[in-house]
Structure formats: C-alpha cells, structure tokens
Write a structure and sequence with these properties.
The protein is an alpha+beta fold. The protein has 1 helix and 7 strands. The radius of gyration is 25 Å and the shape is elongated.
Length: about 130
C-alpha cells in the first residue's frame, strides 16, 4: 500500500518537472537574453522593430524614475520614438559603418559634377537584391 502512494505522488511531480524543462525554462532563457540585448543597445546600432522597421538608434532615454527606456530611432530621415521593448533584434552594432552595406548604382538622367559620366546613386543592399 505504501508504494502506491509513492507512485501516485511521483507521477505528477515528474510531469511538473518535464513541463518546466520543456516549456518554462526555454521561455525564461529567451526573456533573459532579450533583456541583456536591450540593455546593451547603443547609439548608432541598427535594429529591427516589432513593426518590421529597420532603423538606427539616435538617442537612448533612460527615465530617472521607474519607467520604460525610450529610444529615438532614425528611419532614414524620419525620427520616431519607441519603447525599448519594441526592438526585436540588433541587426548590426554601431562600430560597423553604413558604407560597407551600400552599393553604388548609375542613375538614369543625373550627371556628375564634371558632366562626363552619369552620377551614381547609393542604395542599400536588401535581401533578394540582384547584383
């Protein structure tokens, strides 16, 4: 009769431990990693937001009192304010220059200062871009 109670108590305990390792622990690790990434954001970092925007951080505003950290993002000429938790991932750190991610391409009807060759227009490489 005593072994029946042990089995009856061990079964739910085993299920609880398996549930923790299968579901709760991975979520907690992901949240910890996300918090560490948000704390390491710096001015100049290129980030991806939850809305799908790729932007550069212009300013990080940490409130003196308790509250969310606010970021000022540059979306290529447009500045927007966002809460730090809206950042999904860092695309590239501030140390990497934008110059490495750009390609020069001839413009259709623009000419250079000397007037000899067509001017080159800069565009950023995108996923699926040919060339």
């Amino acid at each position: 009769m005593g072994s029946l109670w042990i089995v009856a108590l061990a079964y739910p305990a085993t299920i609880a431990v398996l549930f923790y390792f299968a579901f709760l622990r991975p979520v907690q690790q992901h949240q910890k990693k996300q918090r560490q990434e948000l704390q390491s954001l710096r001015v100049g970092d290129e980030v991806l937001t939850q809305a799908g925007f790729i932007a550069r951080i212009k300013e990080v505003r940490v409130p003196e009192e308790r509250g969310p950290t606010e970021l000022v993002l540059d979306l290529g000429g447009i500045e927007v304010r966002a809460v730090a938790s809206a950042i999904v991932q860092r695309m590239s750190p501030a140390a990497q220059g934008v110059e490495a991610a750009t390609v020069e391409e001839p413009a259709d009807n623009e000419t250079s200062v000397a007037g000899k060759r067509p001017a080159r227009r800069r565009r950023e490489k995108t996923i699926g871009a040919r060339g």
